[in-house]
Amino acid sequence: MEVSNIISETNDARTFELKPLDGWKPEYQAGQFVTLVFNTRHGEKRRSYSISSSPLLNEPLAITIKKIDNGEFSRLLVYHTKPGDILYSSGIGGFFLLPKDTNAVKQYFFLAAGSGITPCYGMIKTILAKSNSMVVLIYSNRTEADTIFYNQLQRLNAVYPERLIIHYLFSNLLDVYRSRLGNWLLHEFLNKYLQDEHHAKFYVCGPFDYMHMVGLGLAARIPAENIHKENFSSLPRLFIPRPPDTDEHKVTIHFSGQEFIIPVQYPATILAAAKAKGIQLPFSCEAGRCGSCATTCTKGKIWMAYNEVLTNDEVEAGRALICQSFPVGGDVIIEF
Ligand code: FES
Question: 14: helix, coil or strand?
């Protein structure tokens, strides 16, 4: 993809508008991410970045990136990338999605902190353009100047004053009760705006501690299937638990019209074994968190060490994350 335009959102956050090349016509949904592939001295590395554009609005495909302290690639992108530069992508994925029928849900709540607004922004634009539903955004930042999309959100608010409610929380304010989202304030917002917990969807995106606090607060009164979380951590998991069967089994992989048959044995996951054979499969976080590597097991049994993405129903139906998967009890076949 060619970087066609760069928009400075804050001191350390940029939106990159991307022009797909080589005839690639990416299809995506609001809330998904693009996985970028970087070739480094230490081999290929991948990072996923949330899409901030909405496919409904005729906008160019765009990702918004905030510099992370010591972030190898975020610093490179934010400070050194120029229009005309070429970025390489392994595709688009992600399960942080709106329901198919946006109108079927009466209220959408977005709880975002810092760059956690990025996927939420694309979804908020989509809901406002496509449905009659109401949106409540609770958005935490250090200061107004650090607030990504502040001006764009204010403009949206002016266009949809009846349907978009925004509360900005700035941690530099002296009023401790209103400067950060704590459990008390979260419930105050719910008491004020929530009409029916069975007809409301909640989308939470931000740093780990924030997600943990909000997740616990919501769990007390919102059905689990109405809470959606996007975890931004890109750190691989250091420890992979032992599967119940550590024997070697054959894994047949159907991907992109090709068939590969490889042996897989703990501690190598299916993804690790495929990478060792030079087979290019989709992946990003390698931690069971992003969903880029999701596949379907059509024969045999797969055991997953960790999964933050797939629902129980999807796992029952054979879906699996190959970065966390091992064949157990015999050979397996997987299809992408
Ligand atoms: Fe992210 Fe497997 S690569 S879940």
Answer: strand
Residue with tokens 């539903």: 133
Task: Indicate the pLDDT class of residue 239, thresholds 50, 70 and 90.
Answer: low
Closest CA to 93 of 161, 145, 32: 32
Tokens 């068939």 belong to 259
- Residue 176: φ, ψ to 5°: -65, -25
What are the helix (H) ranges across the chain? 72-80, 117-130, 150-159, 176-179, 183-193, 208-219, 270-276, 312-316
How much distance in Å is there from the Cα of 144 to the middle of ligand 1? 34
What is the band of 232 on the pLDDT scale with cuts at 50, 70, 90?
Answer: low
- Six token digits for residue 80: 């050194």
| Residue 86 DSSP symbol | B
Query: Which of 292, 295, 319 is the pocket-test mutation for ligand 1 (most atoms within 8 Å of CB)?
Result: 292
- Band (45; pLDDT cuts 50, 70, 90): confident
Give the separation between CA 45 and CA 211, rounded to whole angstroms.
26
Q: Which tokens in the block code for residue 299?
A: 């024969």
**Mutation test of ligand 1: which of 323, 325, 326, 336 has the most ligand atoms closer than 8 Å to its C-beta?**
323
Task: Give the pTM.
Answer: 0.86
What residues does ligand 1 touch, defined as CB less than 6 Å away?
283-293, 309, 321, 323
Which atom, in ligand 1's list, is nearest to the CA of 284? 3
Give the pLDDT band (50/70/90) at residue 175.
confident
